[in-house]
Every structure is written in structure tokens, then in C-alpha cells.
Automatic annotation (TrEMBL):
Keywords linked to the UniProt accession: Cell outer membrane, Membrane, Signal
Pfam families attached to this UniProt entry: SusD-like_3, SusD_RagB
N-terminal signal peptide: 1-23
Main location: membrane
Lineage start: Bacteria, Pseudomonadati, Bacteroidota, Sphingobacteriia, Sphingobacteriales
Record-annotated RagB/SusD domain positions: 344-470
Organism: Albibacterium bauzanense
Stated name of the protein: Putative outer membrane starch-binding protein
Amino acid sequence: MKIKLNNYIGMAAVLLLSLQACKKDFLDKQPITQVTPDKAFSDAEAAEKLIQGVYDGMYIDYFIWDYMTNGDVTSDNAYAGGDNSANFQINDFTTNSTNGNLGRDWSGLYTTIKNANLVLDNVPNIEDPALDEGNRRNQILAEARAIRAYSYFHLVRLWGPVPLVVKVPANINEMQPARASVDEVYAQIIEDLDFAVANARTSAPNKGFITQGVAHAILAQVYAALPTPNWAKVLEETNATIASGYSLFGSYDGLFQMANENNSESIWEMQYDGWSGAHGNWMPSVIVGSGWKKFNTPSVDLVKAFDSEGDDIRKNSSIKFIDASTEAWSDSYWSKDSYPFINKYRYDDKNNAYFIRLAEIILLKAEALNELSATGWLQAKPLVDQIRGRVNLLGTTAITQASMRAAILKERRLELAFEGYRWFDLLRTKTAVTTMNAETDADGKKLHSITEADLLWPIPQAEVDRNPNL
């Protein structure tokens, strides 16, 4: 959906009629189109359809695909690939306000926020005792608030100060909000997630739903990403996440096999059932295959990082090299007779994708321990070694706070490649400029020359034109 922020308000019935029906456990509610305008907010069934509409509304470019482009192509993990000028701008740090990706990402994230706000504005007022059985009303509100918080978490890291909209606008002035400060946005994110921690379900039919564990995990990420990280809270929230019943999956490569979807390590993952079902995942088809040059090509620098660590297991699970010598396209970075493609998404339209998994939270806990004291590296080491041990690597050699800081950042890169984390890790550790300016191609040629001014995106021009307060 391409609904712009200033079109945020509208008839609730129009929104409801626009959302899709869903068919599997994650998507098993009655069709949203069966909610008529006069019954849209009248009973528990309608409330369930409203929150289902929020989940359905996440099947958009941002959460299917762009989150990974933004996290990996912007960083030193991948090149733009393909032939899309918007992606080239992101790769080259020449992004301007007319970039199409920026427009659709802004729109998609604010549409998700709008959908969540419809739930938050209306579900509290539904007079149906069934909603209060088993705390279901508050669970629904918790799910909506967590998804709203997650959307704002992406917005604030990409754009910095952004409009903070926490209710359905009632008039033209509310439809043209000014930008809130970064601190104000983070305060709202934390407030929403604290509510979710207190009220969300402890378990759900699959890993596509918001639970308390998901809320704890997002909170841990948020506290680490604050302008001044709160490492004590990161440690508190990572411990709470780990205590929620997750465990590392035995095989790293098994994490990315369809038979192991919704596994013990998964905290939150997008659920796909293919084009014959309710939602197909088109990301695999645009990152690997023949016929045209695919997007998000693994970088020379990332391959070197895997090789220098002797990390064959994670390298082979993340990247596969294919003979593309007969393809008509050309490439500036790689020989086509052994050309790299992303390998974590292997199953066409049915491939689930992780938003958060336990290994990331364990490494975030290690980071918190290391930052909390000069000798915290001693406590962090067993956690880092646990992640390395799964892929048959020896323990880290880090023996100081500084060397452990670098070791954790490297470990996160190799563990989480192509899962949308790398750029945001570089931003929050304040290493983005130095890291990107040090990246070279196979011939040693430097690829970037950026400054702090290049780290945030410009507001999409179409939004500025519509909203003078931006």
C-alpha cells in the first residue's frame, strides 16, 4: 500500500475493506472484508480482525525486502547488484529526496503505524466482555504497540527526527505533524514496548506473532541503539529474552532450511505460505537466479571476512558461488564464472525470514557485559564462544574491552549477514564512517568517501511537498 502520511485519516471501513484475508495459523482469521462499517468496532471478533489487519499490512516492500537492502547494501556486506538506480544511490551514498526506495519505505512504515493506531484508538472502546477474558483486550493492544514501536525504530535510525503520530488524526493540522526529536521518538518506542512486555502473550501459535519475548528482544535492541546506549537495560532485556524459553538451534545451516521454520532459536519471523496461499515471499527470486542480474550481491569485503576467520560453515550458508558466465550482464566486482549470491533464502515464495533470533540477542548480551565494565570481556567471552562453537570455530582471542568490542562487532557481521543488521550495527557503534571509508574492492580500490552527513536519509520530497511542517 502506498498511503502517504497526510492521507493517514480516512474511513475505517475503507482500510478494513483493503486488507487481505489470510489462510494459515499466522493468518487464520475471517476475511477482513466481512467487517462491515457499522460493525467495524463493535465486538471481540472485529477487534481480532483489526489486529490481524496490522499483521497483514506488514507484507509490504519494507518488511519483505527493503529492511535487508537497507541493512546490508548500505553497509560493507553487499553491493546493490541489479539495475535499479535507487539501489545504486543507497549503495553509493548519493541518495536524494526523490529516491523511490525512500518514498516507499517512509510510506510503508507510516502505513503500518496507521494500522496499529486504528487498533489502539478503537479496541479500548469496544464493549464486549469477551475481549476481557484472559486479558485478550490488552494482548491485542500490546501487539499493536509493539509493531508500532518496531516501525518507529526503523524510521528513527534511517531518518533521525521524524513525525510522531500515536493516534488517528482528527483534522488537517494533525495530518501535517512536524518532526519529533530523536529522544522523543525513542521515549515513545520504549513506552510502547514496556506496555507490550507487561501485557503481550507469553506464547503464540507460531513465531509470527508478538509475544513478551519479542517485546523484550526489541527493547534490548532499542536500548543498545539509543544515542547514549543504556547497557544496564540491554543486559536486563537480553536476560529476560533468553529466559523466555528460546534456545540455539543445533545446526547453523539448518536455521535456513524450510523444515526448521519457527524453530527454538527463532524469536520473531515473517510467515510465508507461497503464492498459492495468502502471502508469497518474492525476495528469493530477486537475489538469486538467472536471466537478469540479481540484487544485493555479497561483497568482496564480506567474503574476505569469512575467509580470514576460516568460517566456512557460515560462509557457505550465507553465500553460494554459481557459474554465471553465460549471463548477458556484466559486473564490476566479481568474475562471472564464480559469482556470489545470497544463500539464506532458498525456497522461492515460501521462505520464512527472521526479524530476530536468539544468537543476535546472545551477542547483544555479550556486548552489554563488555561495555558495563573494563573486565566485562571475561563475562562476554563464553557467550561469544558459544556462538562460534556452533560453527566449529575456536574461542575468541579478545583479552581486553577494546578487542572484545571489535570481536563482537565482527561476530555479529558473520553470524547475521543478510538479515538486515550490519548497517544499524555500524551506526550505533559509531563506526560507520571509518568502516565504509576503509572498504575496498578486489583490486584494493577504495569504494567510499563519506562523512557523518551521509548517515541519515533525506525526507522524501513528496512528503515535504505535502507537509509544510516537515
